[in-house]
Amino acid sequence: PTLIEDFHFREKIFHFDHERIPERVVHARGYGAHGFFETYESLAKYSKADIFQRPGEKTPAFVRFSTVAGSKGSFDLARDVRGFAVKLYTKEGNWDLVGNNIPVFFIQDAIRFPDMVHAVKEEPDRAFPQAQSAHDNFWDFISLTPESMHMIMWIMSDRAIPRSFRFMQGFGVHTFRLVNAKDESTFVKFIWKPKLGMQSVVWNEAVKINGADPDFHRRDLWNAIQSGDFPEWELCVQLFDQDFADSFDFDILDPTKIIPEEVIEPIPVGRLVLDRMPENFFAETEQVAFMTQNVPPGIDFSND
Predict the structure, then answer these.
(1) Which of 16, 128, 145, 177 could form a disulfide with 300 if both were Cys (CB 3.0 to 4.6 A apart)?
(2) Which residue of the set 8, 18, 27, 137 is catalytic?
């Protein structure tokens, strides 16, 4: 029995009872690292955002990588989309560039998002398969959502089982706008390109790795940064104006489509370096929150 006046005990138990938070509905299994973003050259012609004004200036950053469908306890090498969420602590406020390792998405209309999430989760009657969408519930959704087929082609490719976070591209997916000091806007797509290039594993390798080390991606990133082998990505942009958007063969402001790089070549504008692991995983990685509406002045949204 405990005494009601033992407030030290009650406060400790209260804290213990409330220290767990519900896991994310999607992107529950994540791993993050701190670093910085360094601007290559001024983009004042296109954007008044402070982060793009001065060459060589460094901005603190935090990146959270994740799988999408699985729970916090699922394995790393599931065939799944990978989250690539970047938080840049600019002088004008946080810029959250929330993206994936695949440049397109399942749906055109956001009202279908809850249905899509329900579909990629485990079957409702048996609660498996975990962390992947190889079941009837998912394929029923796909059969009713023809715009998802582009995304399906990417998921069934090697992109869905990357060798490491360090060998993985990232995409903002949606089309944004850069706005300059004259309030002139330019459409932009953001792409993170790894300096190490891209590498994936084949399915048989993924199955073996999941059995031997379910934390393979986490361990790889931790070991690399702790040993001083800091992963690095270049931020590239595809820039185009309204006339180009109007003249294209399809609606560019559609997250199920891409703009081919041979049509608009991505231009490197800066680099992202991850050089420090969190000291407290729960406080820094598990509790970090990203909001797509967090953009600084000079970066705006489109009708995408």
Answers:
(1) 177
(2) 27
Question: Is 27 one of the annotated active-site residues of the chain?
Answer: yes
Distance CA 286, CA 196 (A): 27
Can you read off the two tokens belonging to residue 46?
Answer: 């296109």
- The fold of 21-106+159-301 is Catalase HpII,  Chain A, domain 1 (2.40.180)
Per-residue pLDDT, 117: 95
Which residue is associated with the tokens 């009657």?
A: 125
Q: How far from chain centre, in Å, is Cα 98?
A: 5
pLDDT tens string 215-231? 999 999 999 999 999 99
**Choice among 34, 100, 150, 217 that is catalytic:** 100
What pTM was estimated for this model as a whole?
0.94
- Whether 18 is a known active-site residue: answer no
- CA 135 to mean position of chain CA atoms: 24
The H or E element containing residue 215 is none
